[in-house]
Amino acid sequence: MKTDPKNQKRVQGSRLHPEQASPNNNPTKQVQETRFTPAPWAVVQDRLVYAGNKYIVDCEFGGLPSNDPAVAEQRANAQLIAAAPELYEACRMSDEATTQRQLDAACEAIRAALAKAREEAVNE
Fold first, then answer.
1. Distances from the Cα of 40 to the Cαs of 36, 75, 93, 111, 113, in angstroms?
2. Please, are residues 121 and 115 in contact by the beta-carbon 8 Å criterion?
3. What is the Cα–Cα distance from 20 to 5, expressed in whole angstroms?
């Protein structure tokens, strides 16, 4: 990534160089509207992903019997999709972090989102 030599800030980057980082000095922090449905998303019936009462996607492979091993894969796909908003937010937090405290919070959010994607979090 290129650097602007006048002010040592990354060009098109989201973090300042360490010598300029402070909690109140983040010139790239912008309010960006996302176009996707906000979290939380949840898996229903092992294959459907909903955000509240809003249907997101159906991960069914197509009429599988409940004992088919692919049902577990179908559930895992749905769980990964359901974790997408949290994964996005955790990545955004990491990208915008300018202090160790913010980076620590982002890492915690990443761990929580990964746990949700792996179904290690409490199932909805």
1. 12, 17, 17, 16, 11
2. yes
3. 13
Model's pTM, two decimal places? 0.68
Residue with tokens 């049902």: 71
In one letter, which amino acid is 75?
R
Distance CA 100, CA 21 (A): 10
Per DSSP, the three-state class of 32 is coil
pLDDT tens per residue, range 6-29: 443 333 343 443 444 444 444 444
d(CA 75, CA 50): 13
DSSP string, 39-61: SP-EEETTTEEEETTEEEEE---
pLDDT tens-place string over residues 50-65 = 999 999 999 998 888 8
Q: Which amino acid is at 37?
A: T
Question: How far is it, in rounded angstroms, from Cα 9 to Cα 27?
Answer: 9
Q: Distance between CA atoms of 23 and 16, rounded to whole angstroms?
A: 11
